[in-house]
Design brief:
alpha+beta, 26% strand, DNA-binding, 6 helices
Length: 257
DNA sequence: ATGGTTGCTTAGCAA
């Protein structure tokens, strides 16, 4: 099984790139974030023609998360169960091939100390509570997405410049560590322990050509599936060329059990 | 120095 996760920063602006990536890599399951369309505007037809079922939790202008799968998706959940107060479409879960997949777009947080940052911390706390009862499920649980956290100094090209920002500070690193403490493994960390693998580069200040990046997009796996992960990485090439997303896809491979 | 770029929507927000 080959899976991937990509913050596409608008699925309408990125549809050609997405279809090309699906055609070349043919992931069995792909989680998307920041699709930035309502369910009605979601381009289900070209994706169906490309061989993918799609489950969408859409929103106009902002956010929006999706799970694509070559096999059928069942038991779809949108948002945190029982939370009617959160109007932002940032979480969708579905089952494919007997595995529970979650596509998450964690709030960026704006600036440390802002209301947006408080919302980020509360959202991460809610995510942790949501994951707790699922974590040891068989055969496994996969949390994919833009978690907006760089977990380690190895995941930041210029750690001294980024220390203390919403993407890289002690508080959010502790939140990431708390996710791992639930029993998740960080697939890219496990298979690329040397670091220097980034998934996001700011559009500004020539960040990409300077490789001033951070690894903030992740595939975390819990349960029996974790031991079946044979490789994982980030497709930096997908950030190249005209009109890229500011994020690159993260991928992981699992031995079929 | 609080800049710069992109997307959505069309002046301003979010990232």
């Amino acid at each position: 099984m080959f899976i991937a996760s990509w913050n596409v920063n608008s699925i309408r602006a990125r549809l050609d790139r997405l279809l090309r990536w699906l055609e070349v890599h043919r992931p069995d399951v792909m989680c998307l974030q920041e699709v930035k369309v309502t369910d009605a505007e979601f381009p289900a037809e070209p994706l169906r023609e490309a061989g993918y079922f799609a489950e969408v939790y859409g929103q106009k202008t902002y956010n929006g998360v999706t799970i694509l799968s070559r096999s059928e998706l069942t038991d779809v959940e949108r948002g945190f169960p029982g939370d009617s107060s959160d109007t932002q479409a940032r979480l969708i879960a579905a089952t494919a091939r007997g595995v529970r997949f979650i596509s998450a777009y964690v709030p960026n947080g704006g600036a440390v100390g802002s209301d947006a940052y408080q919302y980020k911390l509360e959202w991460l706390n809610q995510l942790r509570r949501y994951l707790e009862p699922h974590r040891s499920g068989s055969p496994g649980l996969v949390l994919c997405g833009d978690l907006n956290i760089a977990p380690d100094t190895l995941d930041v090209a210029k750690p001294e410049q980024w220390e203390g920002t919403v993407l890289y500070n002690q508080e959010v690193r502790a939140e990431f560590a708390a996710l791992l403490a639930l029993g998740f493994i960080d697939t890219v960390r496990r298979h690329r322990p040397e670091g220097g693998q980034y998934s996001w580069w700011d559009y500004r200040q020539l960040s990409f050509p300077r490789n001033d990046g951070l690894r903030i997009d992740h595939i975390l796996v819990a349960g029996g599936l974790a031991d079946l992960c044979t490789d994982a990485g980030i497709d930096r090439d997908a950030r190249k060329g005209p009109r890229p997303s500011d994020h690159a896809p993260v991928w992981a491979i699992f031995q079929d059990s």
